[in-house]
Amino acid sequence: DLGQGLAAAAQREILEVLLNQPSFFELVKQKITPAAFDVPILAKTANVLFETLSGDPDASLKQVLAKAEDVSLGSCIVELAQVGAGKGNFESRLTGALDVIQRLQQRKKIDKDAAVKAQTRFLRDVRKTAAKQNPHSIGMT
C-alpha cells in the first residue's frame, strides 16, 4: 500500500523523481530527511534511497535495488521508478512535493505546540482548582 492523501502523494512524487533523477538528491536532503516519510513502504524506500545516494550521488536503479531488503520493497522501487519516468517534468514535480511536505511538517509542529499549551493550561487549572476544592489539602504542590 503506497498510502492515501496529499502527504502520501507528495512522498511518492519525491521518490519517483529521485529514482529517475538522482542529481536532485542534494536539494532534497537539504529540505527533508527519511523521517518525513510516514507511509511504511515509502519510508523503507526513502531509507534505502537516501543511504544509497549519500554514498554515491549518481547511483543507478540497479544499485538502489541491490540494497532493497525484500522483494516487496524492490517491487515498490521499480513501480515508483516506472511511474516517475512516465510522468517526466521532474523539477516542477519535486518542487511542488517538497513544498507540500514542508507545509505539512509546519502544520504538525503548530498543532503539536498548541496541544502542549492546552495541556499545560489544563494541568495548571486543575492544580489551582484542586487545592481550592479539597478541604484536606495542606497546600503542598
From TrEMBL:
InterPro entries: DNA_helicase_N/primase_C. This is Uncharacterized protein. The lineage of its organism: unclassified sequences, metagenomes, ecological metagenomes.
